[in-house]
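Running low. Got one?
___
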Amino acid sequence: MKFNSIFKTIFYGLCLGISLLPPGFSVATMAMILGIYEELIGLLNDLFSTKMKQTLKPLVSLGVGAVFAIAVFAWLIRRSMMRFPYQTRFFFIGLIVATVPLIYKQADVKTNFRLKHGISLIIAFVITASFIFGGNVALVDLGGDMTILKIIYLMFAGALVSSSMILPGLSGALMLILIGAYEFLLASISSLDVVVLSSVALGGIIGLVICGRLIKHLIENNETTLYATSMGLVLGSIPVMLSHGIPTEGFDTLTSLITAIIGFVIVTVLNLKKA
């Protein structure tokens, strides 16, 4: 049992919280690296069952660590995006690119891929890449007072994030970028906007109950299609990230390439450790 120590469990929560924020970095992948993936999935699926009491203690400890990490690193990432937008964005691109080999290996493409899986990948890629034409803005206007539509949208964002915890290689932060909610949620975390964070948390719980079980079912019954779709989402997000702007000055170009390489190396090294 990996969660028999409170302090160790809080440490696991810190690691999971850190991995939740950078686009392209998967919480599920981090859980696999830590060796807690299967137990974590078990806890999440037992949360609203007869085993609920046994799951609360480790989940609360994980939550304490994750919330602390999110609070600290959300501020750091937001500051970095404000002061070094190109370098930070290309660091994220490096993370995203490095997840492609991970999903490729996880899906065992050479052995399992068929025509239908290639079609799933292409459709997911085209849909995701088409977000370029959305102007990189939120699907719902997040400015001004809170409305029912905004609350539903934020709940949807929370469901996306929580569902991404199930599938290795799929980043919740990346999904938030695609729907235009990433920077808004970073700012809300930094300012401790209770209404926004509560809406996202409620959506996250719903995502764990509904989407989590659905993804778990797909992993057990149609895993290759799910991974093919995930790979399409990741590949399609790269042109979307690039559409935010490409550095043209020499210093920005060089440092952006360096941060992209650093991001790629980080995920690759962690993936090797997992293997």
